[in-house]
Amino acid sequence: MAQGTGSINSDYKDWEWSADAGERARLLQSPSVETLPKSGESQGNGLGATSALGAVFIVVNAALGAGLLNFPAAFSMAGGVAAGITLQMCLLIFIIGGLVILAYCSQASNERTYQEVVWAVCGKVPGVLCEVAIAVYTFGTCIAFLIIIGDQEDKIIAALVTEPEEAGSSRWYTDRKFTISITAFLLILPLSIPKEIGFQKYASSLSVIGTWYVTAVIIIKYIWPDKELTPVEIPTSPSTWTAVFNAVPTICFGFQCHVSSVPVFNSMKQPEVKPWGAVVTAAMVIALFVYTGTGVCGFLTFGAGVEQDVLLSYPSNDIPVALARAFIILCVLTSYPILHFCGRAVLEGLWLRYTGVTVEEDVVRERRRRLLQTISWFLLTLLLALFIPDIGKVISVIGGLAACFIFVFPGLCLIQAKLSEIQETRAISWWAQVSYGVFMVTLGAFIFGQTTANAIFVDLTA
User: Fold this and answer.
1) 284/275 Cα distance (integer angstroms)
2) Mind giving me the DSSP string for 149-168?
3) For the whole model, what pTM was predicted?
């Protein structure tokens, strides 16, 4: 983390190619609190130090996360393995295209973060909408993280408590609401208050290992299943053609790394569109294998009876799965403060832009405002997590916002970037790119509208 300046996370050269907590926090920094001029910054720092291989690792790390727990249920909702894989492959083309478009627009606008690119290329209104969407998205993701903690703790406690369920009501200290609350107050809140979060780098590295471990356990459990694990029913086709779209929010939520991609692109030794295309293609193929392996094996193990959180489908006393649950809890404990930091930085930027106050003028009130923002954010996410039953309902909402980051904003940026070009004649390639941008915006708007309406009228009212 950059120290000794008035800006928040303005030193881009610090984060090299590792993917620790400090780097993740920089990915969503607010442009409103940056005080160093870009021209002088670029002259002083020169090109970044991230290699192509390092960029692949960072993008994969940004894409993979606790959302993979919902992929087996997404395959079930889509109507089976064939439908789920086909949907992923179709969306992956546009996911990679969006990442390349963002790099192109970043290079054209000389901006270094996602929302800065949207502000510079599309203007004020889309820029504000983008920042609000990021804040809502990170808020919803924090709710999902707390629900995941409750899911895993329920199973771990069930394995530790030997008292049979028939003996009566469960003890107060095993109650889900109590375990989520005590974990959140003792571990998450203290990690969320500091102004900087670079101290979490080692725990974040463990959370990356934990994500891969979960995938390995699910695949191994499918290859060598326990005798008591028998699938209820394995659908081979969707019940209706619209049922396929039920899996879209999970896929968008899982592959959404676009907000993080712009700083990664600018950190590369060769920040050029062509090598970046190879980087994101390789990264998305790796993520595709991880998500597909988890989704297919988890779905085939339990069939239509798979839980929204696949780890809940396994017995409580399964030791390898219990270790996977512990890893997921660690992953969430370190990811919540990072996502909260990102959302808080965006809210801070919106506040400073609205009031017209610079960071240097507002240092005295920054600590008080940060404490208020953190506590309010924490209590609201905790309260909602206590009364929302599973992560599927949260992902169905924030998955629509992820579609905006993947399709809508990159599409708008491409359209505006091409329209701003001064050309006497419009070549066929120009029209093709504008048409592609229009299609991405249309597709993203459809996904956002369909998934949000479905979440409100079906999932949240169920």
Assistant:
1) 14
2) HHHHHHHHHHHH--S-GGGS
3) 0.83
